[in-house]
Write a structure and sequence with these properties.
The structure holds 2 protein chains of 2 kinds. Chain A has 4 helices and 6 strands. Chain A is α/β, with parallel strands linked by helices. In chain A, strands 4-3-2-5-6 form a 5-stranded mixed β-sheet, covered by helices on one side. In chain A, β5, α4 and β6 form a beta-alpha-beta unit. In chain A, α3 runs parallel beside α4. The longest helix of chain A has 18 residues. The mean pLDDT of chain A is about 80. In chain B, about 45% of the residues lie in helices and about 15% in strands. Chain B is an alpha/beta fold. The longest helix of chain B has about 40 residues. Chain B has 4 helices and 6 strands; from the N terminus they run αββββααβαβ. Chain B has a 6-stranded mixed β-sheet with strand order 1-6-5-2-3-4. The model of chain B has no long low-confidence stretch (mean pLDDT about 85). Classes of the chains: A alpha/beta, B alpha/beta. At the A-B interface, α1, β1 and α4 of A face α1, β1, α4 and β6 of B. β1 of chain A pairs antiparallel with β6 of chain B.
Amino acid sequence: MSKKIGLGKKKELNAELNLTPFIDLLSTCVCFLLVTAVWIEIGSVEIKQSHGTEAAASKKISYDLDVVFRSPTAIRLNLKRNGKKVKAVDVKSNTFEEALANLETNLTSKILSYKNKAIEVASATVTPRTGVNYGDLVSTLDVLRKNKIVNIGIISSRSR
Amino acid sequence: MILNHSLVAADAFEKHLINRKRKVAWGKKAAAFALMLTSMVDMFSMLVVFLLQTFSSSPEILITKGVSLPNSMTPSIVKEAPVLAISKDGNLYLDQVLVGETKNVARRPEKLLKKLNKIKSAWAESHAGQPFPGEINMQADRDVSSTVVSQIMGILTGGQFQSIQLAVVGNR
């Protein structure tokens, strides 16, 4: 630290920050972070295509849901208890976006509160159809996952 | 007095004047640079903070060319696994390598199953004594028919790849 002339032995209070190493460090950080930056966040939606579930083997009452595409704008929901169908709900709309909104409403009001009682759906199977594209299928899976139905399978054409 | 700017052709007094002029000019420039440094440091700091906030250390998978992934509101973290991709032009790729046309593979899946078996045996060699998790990442174009995707899923299930991760673009 430099001394001012005429101040005797007193040290100057204003310290000068050496900016050069600071800028070096920041530029290195910026370069590294720019190179390793992820601009498109890729996620995943898990599908379990297992044959014979553990839920079916247990004695506890379990509910399963079948989501069947009849057309891109018509979806049928079949609620099953221990493998037997107990309720069927048809969701119909003019557009796919409307159908999705209706699906969510019906799911919360008619399926997940079956007989005015909150139930947990152990697993769901989705049956696709020609005319329903993959993007719409993923949006449907999204609605199920949003309602805490995470054990989802897709019925494949080969196994039908 | 008009100063000659060449130090070589100048006498002692002229050299002194030229040097003094240069020092004064350099001093003015230096003051201007110091001001610019402050804003530069500010900008760098903000960039570093922004990039640190968006930094992600989760594994990443390559998006196959010709595939535009669907959006999802509920994505999970991607797991490291082989990548099977169905492009819009109807081709099927396994780990960026073309397997064939999707409709042909769906009809005759032997080639795909052979490749999947190779992956499975390589995994078994490197993870001796552990059960095969059957995980695979699937990328498909958002406009591909859902029945085509389900057909390929059927083949994967037959090849003991039962935990299928559908790749989506996070839309949180």
